[in-house]
Amino acid sequence: MSAETAATPSVSFAFTASAALSDSLQRVLVDLIALGVTTKQAHWNIVGENFRDLHLNFDEVVDIAREGSDEVAERMRAINAVPDGRPATVAADATVPSLPKDEITVSEGVAYVVSAIEAVVSTLRGVHDAVDGEDPTSAGILEDLTGKLEQQAWFISSEDRKPVR
């Protein structure tokens, strides 16, 4: 066995993502990364009544986004797709709305984070059926993330809601 053969072992994947599956998971990845970064920005700069509860709740969203982006990227590698989480890629491709750099009120923070979660959930739901058709394992990850994020949107949006009578 030559030194070159020993240094580059051959890897055979049982399943390899199609370009469409890879693209779908990449779309989810950049949205999750953007959600984590921008929600952390909101977490640092939210001010006003009940800021502390939202400050902590925003960290829960950040945790879901960060753990989710890692799980999606690692799933991509497991199915021989290459994730791209570079800042320029995230900035160019994410659907998450932008957030001002300054302080934001509790109401602005609620509206922003809920809209950011809704953007990510829209991506998750938009790619789900195609992903499920090719790779139910990846679709299961998307389903789990959708449930967690929709729950957070409900929690956070309840801060500003008035009861329907």
From TrEMBL:
Gene3D superfamilies: 1.20.1260.10
Record domain Ferritin/DPS: where: 24-158
A UniProt-annotated Pfam family: Ferritin
Domain of life: Bacteria
Family: Belongs to the Dps family.
InterPro entries, sorted: DPS_DNA-bd (IPR002177), DPS_DNA-bd_CS (IPR023188), Ferritin-like (IPR012347), Ferritin-like_SF (IPR009078), Ferritin_DPS_dom (IPR008331)
Record-given protein name: DNA starvation/stationary phase protection protein
CDD domains: DPS
